[in-house]
Amino acid sequence: MKNSYKWLLLGMLSCAFFFHQADRALFGLLTERIQGELHLNDFDMGVIQWSLFFTLAIMNPIAGFLGDRFSRKWIITLSLIFWSLMTALTGSPLVTGMCGLVFFRSIATAGGESFYAPSAYALLATHHTKTRSVAMAVHQAALYVGLIFSGKIVKWVIDALDQIPAVVDFFTAAGTWRLVFIIFGGLGLLLGLFFIFGLRDRPAGEAVPQPAQPATVPQEKGSLVDGLKAYFCNPSALLASTGFIAIVFANNAYMSWAPKFVARKYAVKDVVAGDDTMFWHYVFAFGAIMLGGVVTDFFVKRYPRFRVGLQAVALLLGAPLLMYFSCAPTYVLMVTAIAGYGIFRGLFEVNTHASLFDVVKPRYRSTAVGLMTMLAFFIGSLAPLLIGWMSKSASEVALAAKGLDTAQIELLLKNPMAEAAAPILAQIQMTAQQVLSLGVPGFERGFWWMGVTYIIGGVAMVASFLFTFRRDHVTE
User: Which of 205, 189, 193 is nearest to 5 (CA)?
Assistant: First the structure.
């Protein structure tokens, strides 16, 4: 069949993207268990998350540049194998504290993951021309499937492991988080081995679609300088990136802290909070992704600006729901808020790369994806660090008000369940669980500010819709 490989390619890349995002979600889902074993406070955890996103920011432009010049098959395959190995090693005995997590979970894992997206999106765009939004929607949906079921899988694995005395005795009750990383990493490695034989840069027996050009003129590869100009001298590309930065900024915070915030604010078990915050938010985003791709492809043919207009509306309507998540008085209203926030996030993200490709020529697209991702993760890396600092500061203020000194406060924040913490808890007449909940006001303030970033991104997309898109639009 003439066009069969493009759908097989989409299926394979969607599987890889599933692990790409599920592996990244593990840390937020297992935050409390990791903190319990390794004695890390919220700011320490924020630093670990910042390290991951900062590494992504540094590596993505390099990955984008290489993706326009070398085999995308091997870039994608080696990327998957490497990040899966590092995910598995995150759960190994080599990780004994913050330094191990920063290296294996943040720097090494992110370094591998960063090479996936620029080559994968560019490869999809090459094979899918008339079906581009649908292909991007299905691929983006794999992200949501990974996040939807990551919470449920983690809950199931943890509950199962907790019922096996030998496992609990070997790893300790908190240490069962290590096996989750090993399992996910191992499955990703198996998929990477399959990619060696199953993934191809070009479909067998058919030519990759290329922009029409004279037969005597070879396909040119733009220089790095040309790629930088195609992106940084393109107002519509920069405005689209501003909207994407808003999405990434809020999402980094949500993945890192939503499970713990919900567990502490509403006094539910960590695996239950992780399951609900992942499932309800991302299942509604998944629905919006699948519907949004078809709707966008239909209207963009008639009205090219429809895509950026839809993204503007999605950000501006998603902002109040994200803000309400920060202060919802009941668990049901909190779930309602994150579901609505998921719908509008999905409507934006189904068009993230397609809106960039609408204004960037094909030979610069991988570079443009790398640069856009770099900016988004440079700025977005600050979100989990900021909220971790807000939570720790709120706890410090509350404990200082009870007359504790700096050393006592630090001991409680690192491990309120330690034997040395018992006299301090007795002194201030609090339980360890009450101490752990002192950071909730900091989380609330942090997530409210995430909504503000949505408004900024929405204004940028409105500016593109009104002033720049028509001039910068390309049809290739």
Answer: 205
Q: CA-to-CA distance for 362 and 366, rounded, in angstroms?
A: 8
Kindly state the tokens that stand for 279: 């499932």
By the 8 A CB rule, do 176 and 33 touch?
yes
Secondary structure (3-state) at 200: coil
Output the CA–CA distances (angstroms, integers) from residue 313 to 11, 403, 462, in the order listed: 30, 49, 8
Return the structure tokens found at 374. 């770099």
Count other C-beta atoms under 10 Å from residue 78's C-beta: 17
End-to-end CA distance of the chain: 24
Work out the angle between the directed axes of helices 4-29 and 116-127 (0-180°, nearest 10): 150
Whole-model pTM: value is 0.81
CA distance 242 to 472: 16
Contact 245, 466 (CB under 8 A): no
φ, ψ of residue 329 to 5 degrees: the values are: -75, -20
Phi, psi of 431 (to 5 degrees): -95, 165
Q: Sign of the C-alpha dihedral, residues 299, 474, 352, 387?
A: negative
Instruction: Report how far residue 410's alpha carbon sits from residue 405's, in angstroms, rounded to the nearest whole number.
Output: 9
Q: Tens of pLDDT along the chain (476 residues)? A: 456 777 788 888 888 888 888 888 888 888 888 888 888 889 899 999 999 889 988 887 787 777 777 777 888 899 999 999 999 999 888 988 889 999 998 899 888 888 888 788 777 777 766 676 677 777 777 777 777 888 888 888 888 877 787 776 776 656 678 888 998 899 889 988 888 887 766 655 544 444 444 444 444 556 778 888 999 999 999 999 999 999 999 999 999 999 999 999 999 988 899 999 999 998 998 889 878 888 898 899 889 999 999 999 999 999 999 999 999 999 999 999 999 999 999 999 889 988 998 999 888 887 888 789 889 989 999 999 999 999 999 999 999 999 999 999 988 888 887 888 899 999 999 988 888 889 999 999 999 999 999 999 999 999 999 999 999 999 76
